[in-house]
From TrEMBL:
Signal peptide: none annotated. One of its GO terms (molecular function) is endonuclease activity. This is HNH endonuclease signature motif containing protein. The lineage of its organism: Bacteria, Bacillati, Actinomycetota, Actinomycetes, Kitasatosporales. PANTHER family: OS07G0170200 PROTEIN, SLL1193 PROTEIN. Keywords: Endonuclease, Hydrolase, Nuclease. It comes from the Bacteria. It holds the Pfam family HNH. Residues 221-279 form the HNH nuclease domain. It comes from Streptomyces gottesmaniae.
Length: 296
């Protein structure tokens, strides 16, 4: 059978774990980062998360947002990556160009940092210290470059590659997924039908009542992804649900953050439970198991 076009990922792991750690850290304590997260959820930003069973999942959207923030922060220094064959006097580029080169999206850097940093004396309550800082024109040039780059196809290609890699790493982490969906549920729970404009009328049909999305059966691709991620076992008690050992055990695709509490119909909000564990959990918010089978 011919492989599907998007079945395989080629991983370069450019900052993959740094971004994954940032996502996990933010989700462990989102209230400490609310100011940084405003662009994701305020001004109707939460509406992008509402449609049922998007393959561009809630985690994809969140990774993209965090990765973009990290790349923007690189311009503040700016963070430099050496480029060229001269190890002593290399040209300097931003990490975003280094990433596009590593992923094969571009063949040559699109931007070179114009100047070397210059020393400045920095005085604070702790005394004098010498730090290496960039002139304003250098910082501004780096910022302007990335600001314009974000509108291009090469940047979109880069964000897609980074997002796919980080998602691959993080999808196994049910605790991080539950934390993400609990954060989003706070905003979903505040959505009321009278908030929608005329062009957003289709969103009304997604809800059974204000703040609660309709229950929609997960599509096959979502069930397969969760089944194999959880190794065909109940994540709470470990009961085999593959049907190979016991054909009477029934698997349930449980919303970790219940729909009644603002949960999403999203692949990142699912876990595999046996019928008994699912009935015990009902619509309560229960931290998912952090037990995983060893690979060998």
């Amino acid at each position: 059978m011919r492989a599907k076009k998007n079945e395989w990922l080629t991983h370069e792991y450019f900052r993959t774990y740094r971004i994954a750690n940032a996502v996990d850290t933010i989700m462990r304590d989102p209230f400490s980062y609310l100011r940084h997260l405003e662009g994701l959820t305020v001004n109707d930003g939460i509406y992008d998360f509402l449609p049922h069973w998007q393959k561009e999942s809630a985690l994809h959207k969140f990774i993209r947002y965090v990765a973009d923030e990290i790349l923007m922060n690189d311009t503040d220094g700016p963070t430099r990556v050496p480029f060229g064959s001269d190890p002593i006097y290399p040209d300097w580029i931003l990490p975003v160009d280094a990433a596009m080169l590593q992923y094969g999206i571009i063949d040559e850097p699109l931007f070179f940092i114009p100047d070397e940093p210059v020393p400045e004396e920095v005085t604070d309550s702790g005394g004098d210290s010498s730090e290496s800082k960039d002139p304003y024109h250098v910082v501004n040039a780096c910022y302007d470059y990335l600001l314009n780059l974000r509108w291009t196809q090469v940047y979109e290609d880069l964000m897609s590659r980074i997002t796919d890699e980080v998602f691959y790493v993080m999808f196994l982490n049910r605790r991080a997924l539950a934390n993400l969906n609990e954060f989003l549920a706070m905003h979903v729970g505040e959505v009321a039908s009278d908030h929608f404009g005329t062009d957003e009328a289709p969103l009304v049909d997604l809800f059974v009542r204000d703040g609660e999305l309709k229950r929609v059966r997960p599509p096959m691709w979502a069930r397969r992804a969760v089944f194999y991620r959880d190794r065909g076992r109940c994540t709470a008690c470990g009961t085999d649900l593959s049907g190979l050992i016991d054909t009477l055990n029934v698997g349930n695709y449980d919303h970790m953050m219940p729909l009644a509490r603002g949960g999403l119909n999203d692949v990142t909000n699912l876990q595999l439970l046996c019928e008994n564990c699912n009935l015990k959990k009902a619509d309560k918010i229960v931290a998912p198991s952090n037990r995983y089978r060893r690979w060998y």
